[in-house]
Amino acid sequence: MSIFAVGDLHLSNASGIDKPMDVFGSEWKDHAARLAAAWNKEISASDTVIIAGDISWGMKLEEAMPDLQMIHELPGRKVLIKGNHDLWWTGITKLNSLYDDMFFLQNSCYEAEGRCICGTRGWVCPGSEDYSDADKKIYERELMRLEASLKAAASRGCGEITGVMHFPPTNDKMHSSGFTDLFSEYGVRNVVYGHLHGKDIWKRGLTGNFGGVSYRLISLDRLDCRPLKLFD
After folding, report:
1. CATH number of the domain encompassing residue 32
2. Order of strands, edge to edge, in the sheet holding 48-52?
3. Distances (CA, A) of 74 to 21, 36, 65, 201
4. Number of domains in the chain
């Protein structure tokens, strides 16, 4: 009964969705098949897998359904958050009625193995290049969603909280942000996130201890298409 995490599946199983990811580097060659093989080998039905956004290239839910079905057919319970490319993600109640083994996390939390999983998509943080008033509006909304998730965990009396985001929790200068402040305030021990791709870009992400919280980048190419075990 372990907890794993992986981000940025970038699946495109629907007819008419042609998004070959290997144009972004050899790490992406046959990425969906490699992910499925590693998942089936390492993850059991009693495990939980956090999926940190950018799940499907589908624009509408019907286009994302073949990708969601693929995830459903893999072992374990899945906790999903929205990524910036998940344009099909609308109507959280409808999404959470699709599958018994998949929980779409938004303004809420999920309990697994005595832990609470909390999170939100996130956004570009203040201090980033070209940060705009439009970014500020989305950033502040995402802070509200993260706090709603953390408050839901606190109301349940969770002993330990794991945070998940799609975007990095800081700007590329590693300055503190509203996200890092909230994680520290609510006593979160570990945070995982995705979004960053490529060896040169991985370096822009926060890793290690920051404000008493451990941060890890779990984008699919960074993990070589293998979900990362967080806890036994």
Report:
1. 3.60.21.10
2. 102-104, 77-81, 48-52, 3-6, 228-231
3. 21, 7, 14, 29
4. 1
Which residue, 219, 221, 181, 187, is CA-closest to 50? Answer: 219
Residue 71 neighbours by CB under 8 Å, 6+ apart = 9, 11, 51, 55, 78, 80, 102
39-96 pLDDT, tens digit per residue, is 999 999 999 999 999 999 999 999 999 999 999 999 999 999 999 999 999 999 999 9
Q: Structural domain of residue 70, as residue ranges? A: 3-231
- What is the Cα–Cα distance from 133 to 118, expressed in whole angstroms? 27
Which H/E stretch holds residue 152?
helix 133-155
Q: How far apart are CA 106 and CA 21, in angstroms?
A: 27
- Regarding beta strands 213-217 and 190-193, do their DSSP bridges make them parallel or antiparallel, or are they unpaired? parallel
CA separation for the pair 178, 89 (Å, rounded): 24
153: which 2 tokens? 């965990």
In angstroms and rounded to an integer, the radius of gyration of the C-alpha atoms of the chain is: 16
Backbone torsions φ then ψ of 171, nearest 5 degrees: -80, 180
